[in-house]
Amino acid sequence: MIAVLFFTFGALALAGALGVVLSRNPVHSALWLVATLISIAVLFLIQDAELLAAVQVIVYAGAIVVLFLFVIMLLGVDRRESLAETLPFQRPIAVALGLMVAAEILLLAAHTWATGAKTTSGVPIEGGGDLGNNIQRVARVLFTDFLWPFQLTAVLLVIAVVGSVALARRSGEPTGEADSEGATETATETETATSTSTETGGAS
Amino acid sequence: MSSSSLALTITPSYYLVLAAALFTIGAVGVLVRRNVIVMFMSVELMLNAVNLTFVAFASALDDTAGQVLVFFTLTVAAAEVAVGLAIIVAIFRRRRGMTADDLKVLQG
């Protein structure tokens, strides 16, 4: 049963990944990405990671792919991409490099694993006494051993929110404040440009 | 392969091989495609392959810490997508092109 699930959804994940790379329309790529993400959620589920499967569907397929589709629709870039190569031999070299990466990873996966030790206060995935279900076990580890990285992710998310808002405002519609800011920026740019040109002029 | 595999036990190596294939497809996608949004999607594929590796090792070593690490990867991926797509929108407003070749002059 597990084997059937693994091969079915593993093949589906691989097909979705190929669809992401090979589709010429970005909207089709996003939809193939959904197929891959949900297949990986099923693979999480059969590895006793129930909470992660739910989070994968909610966060990735629910939020991130919607964000991708929103940007694609907003920019209107859902036209087909021209397939003319601007760099010579880009695709053969890329495929060769990819095959080399695959060979290296498979070689490493076939050999002895580099990681062999548990964490010091490891919480087992199943069994091990009265530790509750998967959500309770993950929460136990997350809020004890990994409390400091957890706090850092809060800082990271705040930085991401502030950064995306700042990026969206800076080049947005010219409100009064942003307009004056841009004007001063261009003024300083032209000033430095003229100063450098006079410097080079004096040097020559 | 899967025809007579009802009694086949899936070892962690199967997941590692699958994750390696997904990672490779994502890496080739980043190298080959020139649409920046599709390049982002390929990066997401690579991150998902790593997540799959984390969960496979978590169940192999019977330790929940591997599953917790996937949360941090998810957070970083979400932050990366938010900021990256904001950058893409900002660039697109300035110059009407969405392939990586349109971005070869970065100084505005």
Describe this structure in words.
The complex is a heterodimer of chains A (204) and B (108). Chain A is mostly helical. In chain A, 73% of the residues lie in helices and 0% in strands. Chain A has seven helices and no strands. In chain A, helix 2 (26-45) packs antiparallel against helix 3 (50-75). Mean pLDDT of chain A is 77; it is low at 176-204. Chain B has one domain: Helix Hairpins (Orthogonal Bundle), CATH 1.10.287. In chain B, 71% of the residues lie in helices and 0% in strands. Chain B is built from three helices and no strands. Chain B has helices at residues 12-32, 36-61, 65-94. The chains are: A mainly alpha (204), B mainly alpha (108). At the A-B interface, helix 1, helix 2, helix 3, helix 4 and helix 5 of A face helix 1, helix 2 and helix 3 of B.
Unreliably modeled segments of chain A: 176-204
Question: CATH architecture of chain B, please?
Answer: Orthogonal Bundle
CATH level 4 superfamily of one domain in chain A: NADH-ubiquinone/plastoquinone oxidoreductase chain 6, subunit NuoJ
Which structural class do you get from the secondary structure elements of chain A?
A: mainly alpha
Largest interface comes to: A-B, 90 and 76 residues
Distance between the termini of chain B: 54 Å
Brief digest:
Chain A has 204 residues and is mainly alpha-helical.
Core attributes:
heterodimer; A: 204 residues; mainly alpha; Four Helix Bundle (Hemerythrin (Met), subunit A); globular; disordered C terminus; B: 108 residues; Helix Hairpins
